[in-house]
Give the backbone structure.
Amino acid sequence: MKEAILAYKNHFGHYPEAVLADTIYRTRENRKFCKELGIRLSGPRLGRPAKDPHVLAEQKKVEKQDHGERNAIEGKFGEGKRTYELGLIQTRLQATSETTIALQLVIMNLEKILRDTFLSFFLRKVRQLNRLFFVHHNFKTA
């Protein structure tokens, strides 16, 4: 996890605001590392819950939001494994595996762009047809 955070800083020039980590990565060492850098680590805090109900409610709200974002990410991984067979990659070299995964992610993104484009085109045509249909037939609503 530390390597990923440092790679993020090298790429973007700053540390991430939050890390939505799986339970296995929420160790005391990683929590300390994130705290030192001012990074919020997703998941429940260690120790007793806060006594102040406002602070507790805010913490729960942030945890719920993080959980929702993490579910969306995990769902995309699940879709990649089911639909694009990312779970079946069996190349011998690490570089080949990384290339195969990257290509599959590009395909996933292209298909989403095509779906969104087709949907917007389709909806535009439906609206045009509705206008033509209702204008030419002069329907009266009772």
